[in-house]
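Reviewer 2 asked us to include a model.

Predict the structure of this chain.
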Amino acid sequence: MTFTADIADRFAQLALAHVGREYPNKLDHVMSGAADVQGPRALHPIFYGSFDWHSCVHGYWLLARALRRHPALVSAAAITELFDSVITPANVAAECAYLDRPGARGFERPYGWAWVLALQAELDQHKDGPGARAALHMRPLAEKFAQRFADFLPISTYPVRTGVHSSTAFALRLAADYAEHNDGALLALMRDKAISWYGDDRGAQAWEPSQDDFLSATLMEAECMRRFLAPEAFRAWFADFLPRAAEGAPASLFAPAHVSDRTDGKIAHLDGLNFSRAWCWRAIGQTLPEAHPLKARAEAAATTHLDASLAHVAGDYMGEHWLATFATLALDGL
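Predicted model (structure tokens):
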């Protein structure tokens, strides 16, 4: 299964329908006084849709990825119009100004921070057209979030080992591509922090999933380390981290999560867990040599998890406003 033009266009249509949908909306917004009582569009002239700010950011990432992979897709004109009308210098300046508010120090940390950098890294790969114009306009916002990482990582003594937005492994992995191409010092800081947080981890028990998970705390850590370590070093680390993976253990990592109610926003997270596991297993499998005993099992696990949730990307807004992004990660990686 790959990110075909048909799939890209179907996902793009979903994103186009929600990045400009202001309500329902769950704000991450600290109010210091009555003047701060404002709606999503007033606070965030670009990322006001998709139920929450970070989902809107990665909705734009999905649109940029679809347009780059398949420039002739049916939705290309609509994506072009959206980018040119919404991602403007004035709107970016307003998003930047929001970050300067006294109550915004922890705004979207670290998940939203990482998605902005992933969006910038994707837009930077567009050599012309609306993506390239958006890349130029978005850069001041990306640089603000890069600086937030640079300020936060030195004081972040401990990792956050969760399967939700607070995951530090996911944030570092997502932001790495931006740092590699734009900020070597930040990339080195991220690599050092990942190694200090996770380098000595051994024999992961993989007590997952939890009911709210959309990330695998175990596999996301492995994918983070894969991104920052040389292949041989990663394989040595991984052999200690999940020493029985080639035997299919822990079994929890190889069995897709059951989603009992897709109209419940938190339970719908579990479809995202299946997609994020598929992404991680596929990336890990590609790092292993052909003869490695885990390689075929990792690839099979990726397919099994993807198949479990791909039919459920659309259907209820609780999943529909974000799941296509994670399905794209499973199909196309970063």
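Residues 203-334 form one domain. The radius of gyration is 19 Å. We have added this to the supplementary material.
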